[in-house]
Amino acid sequence: MSEKISKETVSHVASLAKLELTDEQLPYFTDQLGSIMGIFDSLNDVDTSNVEPTFSVTDQINVMREDVADNWGQRDALLNNAPDVSDGLIRTPTIIDESGD
Amino acid sequence: MDYLGKDIFSIHESLVNGDITAEELTRQTIENAKKNDEDINAFVVFDEENAIKQAQEIDKSGIDPDNVLSGIPVAMKDNMLTKGVLTSAGSKMLSNFKPIIDGTAVAKMKEAGTINIGKTNMDEFAMGGSTETSFHGKTKNPWNLDKVPGGSSGGAAAAVAAGDVLVSLGSDTGGSIRQPASFNGIVGMKPTYGRVSRWGLIAFASSLDQIGPLTRTVKDNAVVLNAIAGKDEHDMTSSNKEVPDFTANIDKGVKGMKIALPKEYLGEGVDKDVQDAILAAADKYRELGATVEEVSLPNSKYGVAAYYIIAPSEASSNLQRFDGIRYGYRSQDAKNLEELYVKSRSQGFGDEVKRRIMVGTYSLSAGFFDAYFKKAAEVRTLIIDDFKKVFQDYDVILTPTAPTPAYSLKDEKDPITMYMNDILTIPVNMAGLPGMSVPAGFSDGLPIGMQLIGKPFDESTLYQAAYAFEQNTDFHKQDPKMGGAQ
């Protein structure tokens, strides 16, 4: 796991995370992610062969409740936070770009 | 109103006696905080209008003599939802976001009669330890304006240290309450995971995040935790464990208490002055009748590596919701939906947030999940087991809160150095334990904090140990001068 991360991998990861990196940013982030990944190598020293992973430390398991919808009745207040609203609906650009080619 | 040298109990007395009304107090508090903010920039926004209105209502119905929090002005970290008031989490992404609800902790503080005067500055999405990644500019340390206030709850801690407010609420994912409390010479508590509802806290890493109070004194801190703790139907990870009165045993002393001093937390990388302060604190506890013995937490040293896989992984998932559609920042130069997501996120998030999203995305991606995320989660188990072992024989663990006092605002910082700074606080979040920072010394005029770590849901014993120390030392009585380096 100590292999240095490549620009191509960083670029791929950025696209998975819906981020775009400029040509200047790509080497900068590649370097930094490489050194961050470097500190993870120390985990190879730890023997975890018989260890269960811990994903949460809550003491609550399977909290049940009635499956009822709660209408907060605050549509307008919610829409106030939306960047683009029309007729009580949130507007977005077209899903398929038809403007150019 | 300047709160240096004061506490909730003294202000409560003034309110009950009618020496000052809640409205006068609130106005004077905001006036003083605004003046201090010209130097320290602890606040993102003041909510003067609502605060005054609320104070007037409290005056009208009368200060409750049995409720010490009645009419006390407080501040909220900017990642906690406040109805109708800017909640930006220190990010451009949410720089225009006004929630339609109060988060549970915010609502409980309101029910308890406190008055929120505004939102405090923080690292963007609570990712950082110096409050330098905020969209709203840097906050300065009131003890020395050339130093960082710590983070991510840097504004929350600086506001309390500067005497702006007696109480602020912060959040702590890897040390974000305790480290700034340490850097600012105040008391900061990260309660047990599940003790305080996270409903309405903008999520960073959901298995680690916890809300807690920052205050000038230990007893004030306990009073505030009383108000915000408890089960909440909106947060299924909040615990239904009974909430005791955290002040009930606070003055019982430490006679017979067993305190563990883990040797790994006083090793390389920890400043000599910090080590000395903690060893002196251990001696003080012995003098007060406690037993203090060296123990080992051998896996804590892997905490940083495991944390910087787990926290970014959870963050990369939590932060997917910021897509520029329903709320928050939307890029104006997107031609289609895909571009809207990508450009809004790329323009709305700062570099540190992007770094963590990418580290998390990578750690969770196919082919790497076992080597990174699963491995880190297994190491987390080992860290937890270490603590369990020590707590079979001890009541409290004593460590430094941070390896150094507050560092310079000016230095260039690389991510790795910044991450290593969390080495002493991270294991506590990994194990979900309560941990608090208490003033324990000074180095060149900058505060040093000691960390007390407790068993799950045993905040009471932490307060008891912290109170005994505070009552027998005078570190908490010193005040910042709000000046620059000499």
UniProtKB/TrEMBL annotation, chain A:
Q: Do you know which Pfam families this protein is assigned to?
A: GatC
Q: Does the keyword Ion transport apply?
A: no
The UniProt record lists the keyword Protein biosynthesis: yes
Entry's Gene Ontology BP terms: glutaminyl-tRNAGln biosynthesis via transamidation; regulation of translational fidelity; translation
User: Keywords, A to Z?
Assistant: ATP-binding, Ligase, Nucleotide-binding, Protein biosynthesis, Transferase
The family database entries (SUPFAM superfamilies) matched by this protein are listed as: Glu-tRNAGln amidotransferase C subunit
Q: What class of enzyme is it?
A: ligase
Q: Which Gene3D superfamilies does the annotation name?
A: Glu-tRNAGln amidotransferase C subunit, N-terminal domain
Q: Which GO terms describe its molecular function?
A: ATP binding; glutaminyl-tRNA synthase (glutamine-hydrolyzing) activity; transferase activity
Q: Which reaction equations make up its catalytic activity?
A: L-glutamyl-tRNA(Gln) + L-glutamine + ATP + H2O = L-glutaminyl-tRNA(Gln) + L-glutamate + ADP + phosphate + H(+); L-aspartyl-tRNA(Asn) + L-glutamine + ATP + H2O = L-asparaginyl-tRNA(Asn) + L-glutamate + ADP + phosphate + 2 H(+)
EC number, as in UniProt: 6.3.5.-
Q: Which InterPro entries match?
A: Asp/Glu-ADT_sf_sub_c (IPR036113), GatC (IPR003837)
Quaternary structure annotation from Swiss-Prot or TrEMBL:
Heterotrimer of A, B and C subunits.
This chain's function reads: Allows the formation of correctly charged Asn-tRNA(Asn) or Gln-tRNA(Gln) through the transamidation of misacylated Asp-tRNA(Asn) or Glu-tRNA(Gln) in organisms which lack either or both of asparaginyl-tRNA or glutaminyl-tRNA synthetases. The reaction takes place in the presence of glutamine and ATP through an activated phospho-Asp-tRNA(Asn) or phospho-Glu-tRNA(Gln).
Q: Which family does it belong to?
A: Belongs to the GatC family.
Protein name (database record): Aspartyl/glutamyl-tRNA(Asn/Gln) amidotransferase subunit C
What organism is recorded for this protein? Answer: Apilactobacillus kunkeei
**What gene name is listed for this protein?**
gatC
